[in-house]
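Support request from a user on the community tier.

User writes: "When I paste my structure tokens into the form, the page sometimes reloads and wipes my input. The last time it worked, I copied everything first. Here is what I submitted, just in case something in the input itself triggers the reload:"
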């Protein structure tokens, strides 16, 4: 998950955010477009058009990800947010498609949107050419059309995590019925593709002296790293098998009411337990966040009698709220839990807290599965 620093609002109910590196992307595109527009108009006109063109491209990248997310939601896949960053955008889905057909629809939606946007920009460039054939606006629109088409074609290369890798996974999944093997094959293909891009980038720098090859190296490294991560996660899913969250959760965990003060929490039974992270619930027993001993210790002692837990509670992100019958593998691949700080709240159909999964629970389950041991140890017989 990419840490987002700037929330940008919501589109179609989907949260949009931007990482600081998105500014680097806009600056780079503006510089590339500005250089190509040199001589088509005054300096002010050229660079104004270049900046607007770069922003328009980022909007197109956002539209690409929105298409993925909207189709995902229509196929029952929850979407946490879309984050714009250095290499474009990423849709953060909280679970996996239920079948190969849904997987294919979600994968194809992004490139199809890019092709559509490329066509719209191309038509706009043709209309602009009727007025100013050699002007910067016409050239910028043509550039925008070209980049969108290239983006669509590149994304359809058959290797995860690119959209083409998702298409490959869906096709193999549909043919074999084995989602895990299909995902592993797509991930290995992504590793090969990333390596090829890195080698092409190095060759471009060494043989032709084109430092633009460094961008291919960076992109190839990202693809190879992301594909390796997906391969590891595929193995994890295979090992965890049919284990559910309910198999490893702590049932009926001790929870703090949000209205309690820190002093009240310290006078409760909690300090006499071995727990280090506690869920915080509202009056209806709905989890609203988690709090750790370190969160309480950060509040000066004189203020603990008046500081409510609601004021120091860390809110639960949607991915950290789960159902007991969900596959544990889905949880392990969508959240990163910090030891002694984070936890996942397990709720029933009414949204009431029924269990808790900590980083220790998750790590123990993964370690035992890696060793071929049962996820939960069998109870010892009494003699």
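"...and here is what came back when it finally went through:"
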């Amino acid at each position: 998950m990419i840490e987002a620093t700037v929330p940008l609002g919501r589109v179609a109910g989907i949260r949009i955010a931007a990482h600081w590196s998105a500014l680097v992307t806009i600056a780079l595109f503006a510089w590339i477009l500005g250089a190509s527009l040199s001589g088509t108009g005054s300096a002010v006109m050229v660079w104004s058009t270049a900046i607007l063109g770069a922003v328009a491209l980022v909007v197109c990248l956002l539209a690409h990800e929105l298409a993925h997310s909207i189709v995902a939601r229509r196929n029952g896949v929850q979407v946490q947010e879309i984050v714009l960053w250095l290499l474009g955008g990423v849709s953060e889905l909280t679970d996996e498609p239920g079948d190969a057909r849904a997987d294919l629809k979600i994968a194809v939606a992004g490139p199809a949107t890019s092709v559509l946007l490329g066509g719209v920009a191309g038509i706009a460039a043709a209309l602009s050419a009727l007025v100013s054939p050699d002007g910067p606006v016409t050239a910028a629109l043509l550039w925008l059309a070209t980049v969108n088409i290239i983006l669509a074609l590149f994304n359809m290369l058959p290797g995860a995590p690119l959209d083409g890798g998702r298409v490959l996974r869906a096709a193999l999944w549909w043919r074999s019925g084995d989602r895990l093997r299909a995902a592993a094959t797509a991930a290995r293909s992504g590793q090969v593709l990333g390596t090829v891009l890195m080698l092409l980038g190095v060759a471009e720098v060494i043989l032709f002296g084109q430092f633009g090859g460094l961008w291919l190296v960076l992109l190839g490294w990202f693809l190879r790293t992301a594909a390796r991560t997906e391969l590891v996660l595929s193995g994890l899913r295979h090992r965890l098998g049919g284990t559910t969250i309910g198999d490893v959760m702590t049932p009926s965990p001790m929870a703090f009411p949000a209205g309690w003060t820190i002093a009240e929490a310290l006078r409760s039974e909690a300090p006499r337990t071995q727990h280090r992270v506690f869920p915080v619930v509202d009056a209806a027993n709905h989890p609203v966040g988690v709090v750790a001993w370190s969160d309480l210790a950060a509040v000066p002692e004189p203020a603990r009698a008046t500081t409510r837990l609601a004021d120091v509670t860390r809110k639960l992100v949607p991915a950290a709220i789960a159902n007991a019958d969900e596959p544990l593998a889905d949880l392990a691949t969508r959240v990163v839990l910090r030891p002694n700080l984070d936890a996942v709240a397990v709720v029933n159909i009414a949204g009431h807290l029924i269990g808790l999964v900590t980083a220790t629970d998750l790590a123990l389950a993964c370690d035992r599965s890696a060793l071929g041991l049962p996820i939960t140890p069998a109870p010892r017989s009494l003699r």
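Agent notes: The reload is a front-end session timeout and is unrelated to the input. The first helix runs from residue 22 to 36. The mean pLDDT is 90. Escalated to web team.
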